[in-house]
């Protein structure tokens, strides 16, 4: 009976006709963004779970005096790939670096390399993008939109192409807070925007900066605007190429695979976690009652891989969009996230903290500015004065200026609730073969927030801050000392305020 139901399900298209390993057997993959956080986790997943994959071409650009091959070796030299090195060392030989620059026309790709990719590649993962919110329009359009168009043009030459997966973001349309897994309109035609940027960017970049506000329209930054623009470019090729889009929400540390807590960048909540844990940030412009939609990186990567299998099965046709989001699965507010982070920080404190970790969230802009002035700027001025007096370079005011800019850039996303429909994304997991359950099942309902945040903090401490577990006892003792100092200063502050108020009341009540 069960076998009959499975055959019927396969006939109806509910179950993938192959396992992930079978789909990738003998296939060559092209990956952009392989040096990034999600890109590296995706590389590890492919190398470990697809033992018969042919070649993975990683597009990289030379950087800091390193060739692309040297950069490839460096990005592999991290604990993330320990499992591959131990159990599938031969898989590392399947990686091949290809020199390119996604910010340049035609990806700055040599024609000889383009021919090899066109002849051999059957799956493309496009992850490369600028994630800076304050990029000039010309930079964001070139890196996010023009590069995608050029890569899609290259894909039209790929004779074996089975799937092209573009990784976008759930926040690519700010004009509403209820999102379905579909394409949304964008302000302006993408061809006109690209032509304008490519023409004006060369002849009159100043004029383009002046036009930026008008071009962006309701979008609050160039990142979200260009990500939406890019999705329409992908859709334009959907009648010629098998394409799909996966939109992750806020990507955070890994939950399970290859191990809990892997993180290698300060983007998003990790930056707040580190700056708060280091005692640098004490207030944040955010609604403590708004829900934050975060998704572990390994679940995003599973979705990307399964999306490629589904796109290959679908072939040409309407564009499929998937939301890698956790809506309805252990929903949690920003206030609770901060509280759990502080609780975990008491057990896993960072070393050499500036002050006792504490962070107050407020949705009131005026209150935030007042708190930022007293808790951030005033201590920074005093700290820089002490650094100058001791012959060291002042840095705290500059640091607080960057922190303020970062907070204002993300405040739009932290002051309101977002609802991302994710039925299609969750449906991908339901269509995998039984053999893929271990490696590609999401099981998001089993990710308990408290345990996950503790693992994420531990991973941040170990892999991002490079702090060994052996120094934990000393860090805990330092944490307790600074907590005592914090309580004493807090008591003195409130005692002083109370004394001033009582003195004024006494004067008003008993003055003759």
From TrEMBL:
The keyword Transmembrane applies. The chain crosses the membrane at residues 366-391, 403-421, 492-511. One of its GO terms (cellular component) is membrane. Belongs to the fatty acyl-CoA reductase family. It is a multi-pass membrane protein. PANTHER family: FATTY ACYL-COA REDUCTASE (PTHR11011:SF24), MALE STERILITY PROTEIN 2-RELATED (PTHR11011). Residues 375-467 form the Fatty acyl-CoA reductase C-terminal domain. CDD domains: FAR-N_SDR_e (cd05236), FAR_C (cd09071). Keywords: Lipid biosynthesis, Lipid metabolism, Membrane, NADP, Oxidoreductase, Transmembrane, Transmembrane helix. GO terms for biological process: long-chain fatty-acyl-CoA metabolic process. This is Fatty acyl-CoA reductase. It catalyses: a long-chain fatty acyl-CoA + 2 NADPH + 2 H(+) = a long-chain primary fatty alcohol + 2 NADP(+) + CoA. Residues 31-304 form the Thioester reductase (TE) domain. It comes from the Eukaryota. Its main location: membrane. The keyword Transmembrane helix applies. Its EC number is 1.2.1.84. It is found in: Membrane. It is an enzyme of class 1 (oxidoreductase). GO terms for molecular function: alcohol-forming long-chain fatty acyl-CoA reductase activity; alcohol-forming very long-chain fatty acyl-CoA reductase activity. The lineage of its organism: Eukaryota, Metazoa, Ecdysozoa, Arthropoda, Hexapoda. Catalyzes the reduction of fatty acyl-CoA to fatty alcohols.
